[in-house]
Amino acid sequence: MKKLMVGMALTATLATAVTPGFGSIGGNQEKAYAAATVTYKVTASKLNVRSGAGTTYGIIGSVVKGQTLSVMSKSGSWYKINYNGRTGYVSSDYVQASGTTTPPAESTTYTVTASTLNVRSGAGTNYASIGSVKKGQKLSVVSKSGSWYKINYNGRTGYVSSDYVQASATTSPKLVVDSFKTLGNAQQVILVTADNYDTKSAKIQTFEKVDGKWKQVLTANGVLGQKGFALSKKEGDMESPTGKYTIGTAFGRYANPGTKLPYRKITANDVWVDDSKSSLYNTWQQKPANGRWTSAENMDIPAYDYGFVINYNESRTPGKGSAIFFHVGTNYTAGCTATSKEQVVSILKWLNPEKNPVIIQSPVSELDKY
Predict the structure, then answer these.
(1) Minimal CA–CA distance to 58: which of 298, 368, 346?
(2) Hey, which of 9, 43, 276, 282 would disulfide with 316, CB 3.0 to 4.6 Å?
(3) pLDDT by residue (tens digit) across 292-314?
(4) CA angle, residues 62, 107, 120, in degrees to nearest 5
(5) What is the C-alpha to C-alpha distance for residues 320 and 368, in angstroms, rounded to an integer?
(6) Is 82 within 8 Å of 67 (Cβ atoms)?
(7) Burial of 198 (0-12, 13-18, 19+ CB in 10 A)
């Protein structure tokens, strides 16, 4: 049987994007400058914090009215925030900013390229030199005025010529999916990893390709079969199969929670045939058996409140394993993958069949196979 047995108070010192008339640095790269302190406060009674910029992303927590947020940037109508040491997103409709209201772009590093560069009291060579900076030195840039950068120089305001300062946007850390070579046209990936073959504990991550770049959407704890991952899956071995699989029908004992996947509501008569000798092996059927099988798993159980079919053993090879699902649970399974109901629903809402989603299950040491 595959069922599972299983307050912040921060004020943000922000960096604002280039304002009109400031020109550009380094072509089309993102630009950011340190700006005045801005306070962002929650105006809703309770506001969900999500793992991405949209209501389709999973909820990782919440903030309450009057709470002050550490805002890093803005993406559309969403603020990117620091939430208990994690990156989160909140709707800007329920956050009020006092002071400069333009949130920052991604951070940018500014480095001196001249051997010695004068720091002046104003934006021009006619202003007095108040000191100098050396090649390779990092600068705290406040803004740009014409061809001059306004900087924080030893606690004072200074200006340096932009001709001798190079800006390079901070690059985002490389994601594990960036190195995968077997994804084909998949634009959504659910990655299930474990430290080794023998552990039942798993890490679940979701990724989506946006404008040609992979973005991480969600991270959650999950569980595998009682005996961990399978080197070679067999019926009844209590192990979860490794590999890359497409995603099948979504299901649940309740109404569609909002998934775009084909959805089937479970009834009391629904079963999944696990009789290897039956011609209906590894298929969803309805009782009574009428001699069509001798063994089948009841689908109307709490573990299947919500979930989806992992398209494993689509050839229905006898004895290779059946009823491999992604479903609700927190202890261990008999061969499926599971996580909390909240996370299952969040992933169901996020999945989009038009993006050819796949699920990859693997020990961390074998990710290079993908």
Answers:
(1) 346
(2) 282
(3) 999 999 999 999 999 999 999 99
(4) 135
(5) 25
(6) no
(7) exposed
Round to the nearest angstrom and report the end-to-end CA distance of the chain: 29
Is the omega angle on the peptide bond into residue 318 within 30 degrees of 0, that is, cis? no
Return d(Cα 288, Cα 293) in angstroms, integer.
Answer: 10
What tokens does 121 get? Answer: 């009291």
Count CB-CB contacts under 10 A for residue 207: 24
- Which among 317, 315, 310, 323 is positioned nearest to 270, based on CA atoms? 323
Structure tokens at 77: 């109508």
**Model confidence, pTM:** 0.59
DSSP 32: -
Please report, as a single letter, which amino acid is at residue 63: V
Element (H, E) at 98: strand 95-98
Identify the pLDDT of residue 254: 97
Question: In this model, does residue 179 exceed pLDDT 70?
Answer: yes
Q: Spell out a b/e string for 83-104, using b for 16 or more CB atoms within 10 Å of the CB, else e.
A: beeeebbbbbebbebeeeeebb
Report the C-alpha gap between 139 and 117 in whole angstroms. Answer: 12
